[in-house]
Design brief:
By secondary structure, this protein is α/β, with parallel strands linked by helices. The chain has 10 helices and 10 strands.
């Protein structure tokens, strides 16, 4: 998940609910101690309504492309990893396929169930992928929307491979924070905070230019499985959406399972 900071206009930062959420996720007793990624992820479970309100969504084009690439239809079964409060789950459910969504945060999962109560083709289970009991189930497509970086890669890729039917797909969806030439650089104003609470992580303080990101096949996170379990990566970019202090470009990575 890539994070925004405070909104800014002409160099004047404006506090936002998202800033408060990120602030509580980053603060540690010892500034030189790197926060545990799983501990950071659990912070969102403490404020599910706030997360649901400020988390950016995904464009319809992304799901239309997902259908075109993976062949999802009403007969398909989809496993969503880390569904949060169900932003992407709604769009998956609207495709008519069967969706099993797992979410490690109990409060987040509870809110997702309430948000998705009208969909009879969705089941939300409370679990992390690493400990999830699949009960022998297999799926056509695994989707992780802004959540795959929370999964332990030494476990997650193998589990993704094992719960998919032969020839199935893993699709990683996310938002990449970018900036455009001439836009206020709010991250420059907050670089000291990033270095204080997340030392040695320069990518937090200097998001790339939009044109530079679009010119590469590099996304926002780890997309290479360590064991060669999946085929070549397909990268799709979609129209940017405004997201607090910056622009967020949804990106989809889709990978076919090796047979």
């Amino acid at each position: 998940m890539e994070y925004g900071s405070a909104s800014a206009a002409a160099g004047n930062p404006v506090a936002s609910p998202w800033t408060s959420l990120i602030g509580c996720a980053l603060v540690a007793d010892d500034p030189m101690v790197h926060p545990n990624p799983h501990d950071l992820g659990r912070v969102f479970n403490e404020v599910p309504e706030l997360y649901d309100r400020v988390r950016p969504g995904y464009p319809d084009e992304l799901f239309a492309d997902l259908v075109a690439v993976t062949g999802i239809d009403q007969r398909s079964s989809v496993l969503e990893v880390g569904c949060g409060t169900g932003q992407a789950t709604r769009s998956l459910a609207a495709l008519g396929c069967s969706v099993t969504a797992i979410e490690p945060g109990a409060d987040m999962a509870a809110l997702a169930r309430r948000r998705l109560a009208t969909f009879r083709n969705v089941e939300v289970e409370t679990s992390a992928l690493e400990e999830w009991d699949e009960r022998g189930r297999r799926f056509d497509v695994l989707v992780a929307a802004s959540s795959w970086h929370w999964v332990d890669p030494s476990i997650g890729w193998q589990r993704a491979h094992d719960v998919l039917h032969p020839g199935g797909w893993t699709a990683l969806l996310g938002n990449v924070v970018v900036r455009r030439p001439g836009e206020p650089e709010v991250y420059t104003e907050t670089a000291d905070l990033h270095e204080r609470f997340c030392p040695g992580n320069p990518s937090w303080g200097h998001p790339p230019l939009e044109d530079d990101v679009r010119a590469t096949d590099e996304g926002w996170g780890l997309v290479d499985d360590p064991g060669g379990l999946f085929g070549p990566t397909i990268v799709r970019w979609y129209p940017t959406v405004q997201w607090l202090s910056g622009t967020a470009s949804p990106i989809s990575f889709a990978r076919r399972r090796c047979i």
